[in-house]
Write a structure and sequence with these properties.
62% of the residues lie in helices and 6% in strands. It is mainly alpha-helical.
Length: 367
């Protein structure tokens, strides 16, 4: 086995695949780190003497934006122009009163830097917080105008209403979401375009396996393995493909552990099943496509089919549900999150039976 591995390492094509796998691993690592180090959108706000809960709402906001309060309008404009801020907002001190009087024109000035594309997001956030303050004041005026309570009772009711309003709009209970974990059979959490690391790795491993089959066919044509008996040749081919693929499967497993939220045990079992699946698929291809040039010419079509007709990058089954059944015909499906261990084991059994049938059929053919 070590001799086979050493021989592979002296081949340019094998080293090229090793280098490509290193690049895939580096790309996965860099992307993962960049996702963790993403920063939010920095927004500047000048309140111009406004008194109310808006200041605290801006400072304690948790979301896509982070707000920086300014005491001076000039400093805010300088930071927007120097691209330190995506946007800057200057809010009039009497904006609530003007909204209550239906005089809402020019109550907020918005300044954006020339490179920003995120002003729409910040507008939604800022104006939603401004509207909260307006509604609180509107509620206060409505109760006052429609109440027959004494002054002491009215003061108590207004305080209670205002406190409850801010509680319900800031503590996350106004909109309540129940998160339910579905069973494995009902799970449908994939997006149309997923972060395609596992899909890319599964297709990449298939390419490597099929390239190992091509190398075997070239070696066979050069009669390198002519001394191996016919009965031992199938076992030798399987062992060769296992050694050829093993380093890449180990590297792919490490990448998937880093990037996937799947349990490590599930990834390990799927990876262990994926190795023999690819070995027997490669052996089937070698038996079906006897001619080496035909084998090589069919590889791009096989690989492209696996990319399109599996949820490796784009999950087309969200638009065409029947494709869920088509996906199961292609090996890369069985390394991805949508598949189960039982499905992968059943697919391996089917591929192995097909391989045995092909062995029997090809032995009966005359030389």
């Amino acid at each position: 086995m070590l001799m086979l591995l050493k021989r592979n390492l002296h081949k340019f094509s094998y080293l090229m695949f090793v280098f490509a796998m290193v690049l895939v691993a580096a790309f996965c690592f860099i992307t993962q780190n960049s996702k963790e180090s993403q920063t939010d959108i920095k927004i500047g706000v000048f309140l111009d003497g406004f008194e109310g809960n808006l200041k605290q709402a801006l400072l304690h906001y948790e979301g896509a934006c982070s707000f920086i309060l300014y005491d001076d309008e000039t400093n805010l404009l300088d930071d927007v122009e120097s691209l330190k801020l995506e946007c800057g907002y200057i809010i009039n001190h009497d904006y609530v009163e003007r909204m209550l009087q239906n005089r809402s024109k020019n109550i907020v000035k918005v300044y954006t830097n020339k490179n920003t594309t995120l002003s729409g997001i910040s507008n939604e956030v800022v104006f939603s917080l401004l509207y909260q303050e307006y509604v609180a004041r509107y509620l206060e005026e409505y109760i006052t105008e429609n109440s027959e309570l004494s002054d002491d009772e009215l003061t108590s009711v207004l305080s209670l209403a205002k406190n409850n309003y801010y509680d319900y709009t800031t503590n996350g209970t106004t909109f309540n979401f129940d998160y339910i974990t579905l069973s494995e059979g009902n799970k449908n959490t994939d997006s149309v375009i997923s972060y395609p690391f596992i899909g890319l790795i599964s297709v990449f491993l298939l390419i490597i396996a099929l390239s190992g089959g091509y190398q075997l066919k070239v070696d066979s044509e050069n009669r390198i393995y002519s001394k191996i008996s016919v009965y031992r040749k199938s076992f030798f081919y399987a062992k060769y493909l296992f050694i050829y693929n093993l380093p890449f499967h180990l590297a792919g497993f490490v990448c998937m552990v880093i990037l996937s939220d799947m349990p490590i045990a599930s990834l390990a079992f799927k990876s262990l099943l994926y190795i023999p699946i690819l070995i027997f698929i490669t052996l089937l291809f070698m038996m079906l496509l006897k001619n080496t040039h035909l084998y090589l010419s069919m590889l791009p079509f096989a690989i492209l089919s696996c990319i399109i007709l599996t949820p490796a990058i784009i999950d087309l089954s969200l638009f065409i549900p029947v494709l869920n059944k088509v996906f199961k015909l292609f090996p890369p499906y069985y390394l991805q999150q949508k598949s189960s261990l039982s499905e992968a084991a059943a697919y391996l059994l089917i591929v192995f039976i097909l391989y045995l049938i092909m062995r029997i059929v090809t032995r009966k053919r005359p030389n």
